[in-house]
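In the lab's daily routine, each protein ends up as an entry in a very long ledger. A line of letters takes care of the sequence, but it says nothing directly about the fold. The fold becomes a row of whole numbers, each drawn from a learned catalogue of backbone shapes. The protein below has been through that process, and both of its lines are reproduced in full:
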Amino acid sequence: MSETAAHSNGNSVRVEIFDQTYSLRGTDPEYIEKLAEYVDSKIRAVAEQTSTVDSLRLAVLAALNIADEYHLLKRKYDTVAAEYNRRATDLSGALDEALREERRAG
């Protein structure tokens, strides 16, 4: 697997994704390079698993894989966030009850 090449020039970053060079702009060149490396690795993984050589088709299949990863992680995050909020609500209610009992006793 070839590495993704990246060269920074001011706010413009040149990256190579699946043997194509792109000039991208952004405030964090290292982050852009990491994204490009990730996309490159996904496209190459799809290329190894399929017989197509059409780079557009490979890019679309890689994008679908990335979208699947995103939605799985988002679903996990949403589940954890909902549990966190439920626990915070339970603890807030328990704290309110404890404070009410303390006021009654005091």
